[in-house]
Amino acid sequence: MSKQIEQAKTFRALHVKGDPVVLYNIWDPGSAKAVAAAGAKAIATGSWPVAAAFGFADGEKIPLDLALDNIRRIVAAVDLPVTIDLEGGYGVEPAAVAATAMRALEAGAVGFNFEDQVVGGSGLHDIAVQVKRIAAIKEAVDASGIPAYINARTDIFLKAKPDEHSPELLDHAIERAGAYEQAGATGFFAPGLGDERLIEKLCAATALPVNIIALAHVPPRRRLAELGVSRISYGPVPYRKMAAWLEDQARQAISG
């Protein structure tokens, strides 16, 4: 059994309802090694920090070749499972996103975030469209022989302010979770969602492990565990804190 297959199985097993795996998102080999040294069980990139670290804006502005070379270097730098944020898969058609997923596997990744917003456009892909895209990734994963983790992300809650998160939005999210599960998703990612009641209902309504981002308005880790969350990630937060610290330290050195 190859190391990548073993790591993929290990990564899947980390997603436990009520005992969430914490993924403190990184952007390059150096940050990956720092997080690994802190005791992380797995390594996850975030599209925003990776793009920012290379001087690009988020939204698939960083060239895919560069993003994948970065993953190869990260995989080589740490002895942990590595999952990549693939955004919208650098394409719209199922064949295009499947090809992107396959290239990520070839680079050593054992999981992907795959979102349903229209990158470079507005709104979300229709459920029927997104289901075909997820199914294509699942076919690519199955063909590879590597049981990679497909973290199907919905941007429903990021498209609305937290005080606009309603039971109706949750119903839409649950509908997408069910459809994405049938298409082959391994997990369901609801970034932006922070309301305790809605998180608990989402975790109860889907068999998929639920991923929440630890933003300022989101409950702490212990409470998320009680609500049934299986995965907590940090998105752009670590990079933004690091950049703010670096700027402050530089300002003191320059002005001092």
Summarize the structure.
The chain has 256 residues and is an alpha/beta fold.
Describe the structure.
It comes from Kumtagia ephedrae. InterPro entries: ICL/PEPM, Pyrv/PenolPyrv_kinase-like_dom, Pyrv_kinase-like_dom_sf. By secondary structure, the protein is α/β, with parallel strands linked by helices. The chain has one domain (3-255): Alpha-Beta Barrel (TIM Barrel), CATH 3.20.20. Helix content is 49%, strand content 11%. It has 10 helices and 8 strands. It has helices at residues 3-13, 29-37, 47-53, 64-77, 94-106, 127-144, 167-183, 196-205, 221-227, 237-255; strands at 21-23, 43-44, 82-85, 111-115, 149-153, 187-189, 210-213, 231-233. It has an 8-stranded parallel sheet with strand order 1-8-7-6-5-4-3-2. Helix 2 packs parallel to helix 4 (64-77) and helix 5 packs parallel to helix 6 (127-144). The chain is globular and about 55 Å long. The N and C termini lie far apart (57 Å). The model has no long low-confidence stretch (mean pLDDT 97).
